Amino acid sequence: MATIIYDTLSAVPEDLQDSAKEVEGKYEVSVVHSGKVKEFRDNNIAVTKERDSLQAALAQYEDVTGVTLPDLETGKLSDFAKALEGLRATKKKVDDHELVENTSLEEAAAARVTEVTNNMKEQLAAMAKDRDAHKSAREASDQRANAMMVENAVRLAASDPDVAMIDKAVRMVLPSALQTFKVDDDGKVTPRSRDGTTIYGSDGVTPKSIKEWLLEQREENDFLFKGSKGGGASGSSDKSTGRLSAAEIEKMKPSERMKYARANGLK
Description:
two-stranded antiparallel ribbon
């Protein structure tokens, strides 16, 4: 688990102060909330197990009817239903001692088939609905967990002295970061274009890192960072024509910062 150590609580970014822990006179901040990530993962495991159980039950019904779930709406159960209807009628007559010699076995079987099929259709439809609901819940949970991983990675890179992004400015680049960086199946955060291809860094070989991506943002929106492009100034007096200084941006309300970011084409 990655941690950042600060000398004082006031030095801890505002968004992370609630989770800061005092250790030997300094303050440690975990950039990955393990409890939340574990909760997401545990929920995903539970959903996967329930999905597997539903799929096993569906397989049993499909073996009996010979009709797969996608075919329920195509009417392929009609012949099977007719046979079940006959069987149901025959069973009732047998129970009531009313079965006559001329009763067709095929008709009796059809009645029974219809009864069983109707019950099965209702159960399969309910199981399909539950399966879709679990799938949607699992996907939403994955998206939240992945977004948290990307955000933590961005905040960690933003605190790098080489990047030195203003704490509150991280929020302004997060939407663009979440669109660019995706979490792979192996848990790696990788930049990808709209068509899913990997975005490579300046060396043309390795995927672009979040640090490199943030430095690109600095080239276009220098006022979001603590120092100028030269790296020596504090950024409090740096102000391009028509743009606010970093200090002025920090004084804005969240809604004002968002409006300013959109107006100035910030990523």
